[in-house]
């Protein structure tokens, strides 16, 4: 049985196996039930290594040891393995989330915060700025900027963007309202759509004819999108922590929504 190199490469990546594990598992799948010797011959993996590899695959659920002698292995159906891997991934992700959630209460996190504060203090405002790439990273940073506002936030975006990220913005608006932070919003898009958004979000967004997306917090920080890529990983934004520029942009925003 000849196994294509491209298939070996793809299966190795999909299932997080090493090269020997991949070759042995594919050989076992093709055979159904086989001994270590038969698998070594088919897979071209050294016989001395095949025993260890089969044992490893059995522990990970890719193979089952057949009862009786001589010792043989049975291939596990690929769909069963996929479901098991999905379950493991969800379990691992849940455990990771719990660990990260508790991280803020640890002494190590306080040390990280102190290191950051010490490092940031002597830096000029205009130096604490940068480009942010990737939609998820952008929105994570935007969440931090808006939720830390003390007095006022200004949001200029599209009705479509607000709809597409409704869960994100609903959480933001709820926290800002509870913190008594003033919210000013300007949206591009159809008037009837903006009215629906105002009703749903309980906000007073005004319609503008400007195709721009930027977010201002306390006239000190601004994050604005400078690209609108169809690929989330390619989206780009710029974050500036400079009251001089941000105040000027906030003034123009106020003029635009009058």
The biggest beta sheet reads: 7 strands, mixed
**Strand order in the largest sheet:** 4-10-9-8-5-6-7
Tally of individual domains: 2
| CATH topological fold name of the largest domain | Endonuclease, Chain A
Beta-strand fraction estimate: 15-25%
Question: How would you portray this structure in words?
Answer:
By secondary structure, the protein is of the alpha+beta class. It has two domains: 5-79, Winged helix-like DNA-binding domain superfamily/Winged helix DNA-binding domain (Arc Repressor Mutant, subunit A, Orthogonal Bundle); 127-256, Endonuclease Chain A (Endonuclease, Chain A), CATH 3.30.870. The protein contains eleven helices and ten strands. The chain has a seven-stranded mixed beta sheet, with helices on both faces. Helix 1 crosses helix 2 and helix 2 packs across helix 4 (47-59). It is elongated. Mean pLDDT is 86; it is low at 123-127.
Please describe the topology of this protein.
Elements: H1 5-14, H2 19-31, E1 33-35, H3 36-43, H4 47-59, E2 63-66, E3 72-75, H5 78-103, H6 107-120, E4 130-133, H7 135-147, E5 152-158, H8 159-164, H9 166-178, E6 182-188, H10 191-201, E7 206-207, E8 214-217, E9 221-225, E10 236-241, H11 243-256
Parallel strand pairs: 5-6, 6-7
Antiparallel strand pairs: 1-3, 2-3, 4-10, 5-8, 8-9, 9-10
């Amino acid at each position: 049985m000849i196994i294509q190199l491209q298939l070996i490469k793809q299966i190795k990546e999909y299932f997080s196996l090493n090269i020997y594990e991949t070759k042995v598992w594919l050989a076992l799948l093709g055979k159904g039930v086989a001994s270590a010797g038969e698998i070594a011959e088919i897979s071209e993996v050294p016989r001395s290594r095949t025993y260890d590899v089969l044992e490893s695959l059995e522990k990970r659920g890719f193979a089952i040891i057949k009862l009786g002698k001589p010792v043989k292995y049975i291939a596990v159906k690929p769909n069963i393995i996929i479901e098991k891997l999905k379950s493991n991934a969800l379990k691992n992700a849940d455990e990771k989330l719990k660990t990260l959630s508790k991280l803020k209460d640890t002494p190590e996190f306080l040390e990280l915060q102190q290191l950051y504060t010490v490092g940031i203090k002597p830096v000029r405002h205009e130096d604490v700025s940068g480009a942010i790439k990737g939609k998820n990273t952008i929105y994570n940073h935007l969440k931090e900027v808006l939720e830390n506002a003390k007095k006022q936030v200004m949001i200029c975006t599209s009705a479509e963007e607000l709809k597409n990220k409704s869960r994100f913005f609903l959480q933001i608006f709820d926290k800002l309202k509870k913190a008594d932070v003033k919210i000013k919003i300007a949206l591009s898009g159809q008037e009837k759509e903006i009215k629906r958004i105002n009703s749903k979000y309980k906000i007073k967004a005004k319609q503008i004819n400007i195709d721009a997306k930027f977010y201002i917090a306390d006239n000190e920080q601004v994050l604005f999108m400078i690209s609108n890529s169809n690929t989330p990983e390619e989206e780009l934004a710029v974050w500036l922590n400079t009251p001089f520029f941000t105040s000027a942009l906030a003034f123009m925003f106020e003029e635009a929504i009058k």
